[in-house]
Amino acid sequence: MQMKSARLIYNPVAGKKAVPARLDNLVEIFQSRGWQVLPYRTTGKEDKMTYAGMLQSQDFDAVIVAGGDGTVHQVVNGMMTADLNLPLGIIPVGTSNDFAGHLDLPSDIGSCAELILKEKTTKIDLCCAGGSYFVNVASAGLLTDVPRETEVAMKNVWGKLAYYIKGIEKLPNFRAIPVEIAGDQKMIKEDILLFLIVNGGTVGGFSRLAPWASMTDGVFDVIVVKPCNLGHLFSLFIKLMKGEHINDPKVEYFQTSRLTINCPDHVNMDLDGEPGPGFPVEVSNIPGRLEVFTPKKFSSKAGKKVSREE
């Protein structure tokens, strides 16, 4: 019987260097089950063209990413650039792992390998913003650049707490940004603190940020936070943890399959915590574009839904 093959792309510094310590064991697990694994150690200098060329160089049966949301983001963009339709396996060893958390993937490396070897997959939605893709969230404004501005050493020591520490440092100097957000039936033109376009339901460790989000429903959830004082902002964070923020008067929450967004030139957009495109930008949902190894099939509905653009 011919062995299957997978390209394993791993971040050597993610999760307190968890993968290098288990790499031989990981290869052994796959090899014992008839899979050949070709590892690639990331250097931090890769881009989507690097991964596109790498994945086109050989006929693989799957792509496996061991790292955090940023590494997954880069590899997926490489896959889309190469127009590949390979199933993606994820070993979540990053700081946040929001995407993997929404998919209910195990955190143990060995358990992730066993999950991939079962070869059960789900086709999930992928989102495109100005020619770049994101699997979980696009954002701009308050605190949205914190993940990429937080040092690796700090993340390895403090974990998610490192993001919160860095975020507190930035609060006093932040100013609201003017924005124009246009959907099919929704228009927002005013100063805001931030916007989030969410494909999954978890962002920054907040597992109930978009309570009705689903990666298989053909739409993304949009959250816009309007200016408020620090007291209201802190109370809003408490509501975020409980999933009660969508009824707050300073929050707009709706669902749509496409948006056009414009902001001033100095505003940066982030995709899955990585630098995104400039403005103006068009954002669209691509239903079922990405096939992922998952422990279960996901329903096209996550629960009671808000109207698409009420």
Question: Describe it for me?
Answer:
The protein has 310 residues and is α+β, with helices and mostly antiparallel strands. The protein has two domains: 116 residues, 3-Layer(aba) Sandwich (Rossmann fold); 156 residues, Tumour Suppressor Smad4 (Sandwich). It is 27% helix and 30% strand. It has nine helices and 16 strands. Strands 6-5-16-13-8-9 form a six-stranded antiparallel β-sheet, covered by helices on one side. A six-stranded antiparallel β-sheet has the order 12-11-10-7-14-15, with no helix packed on it. Strand 3, helix 3 and strand 4 form a beta-alpha-beta unit. The longest helix is centred in the first third of the chain and has 14 residues. The protein is elongated and about 60 Å long.
Annotation keywords:
9 helices, 2 domains, single chain, alpha+beta, Rossmann fold, elongated, six-stranded antiparallel beta sheet, Tumour Suppressor Smad4, 310 residues
Q: What would you say about this model in short?
A:
Helices cover 27% and strands 30% of the residues. It has 310 residues and is of the alpha+beta class.
Break the fold down into its secondary structure elements and pairings:
Layout: E1 4-10, H1 18-31, E2 35-41, H2 48-56, E3 62-67, H3 69-81, E4 88-92, H4 98-102, H5 109-117, E5 121-129, E6 132-134, E7 137-141, H6 146-149, H7 152-158, H8 161-170, E8 177-182, E9 187-192, E10 194-198, E11 220-225, H9 230-242, E12 251-256, E13 258-262, E14 269-271, E15 274-275, E16 281-293
Helix pairs in contact: 1-5, 2-3
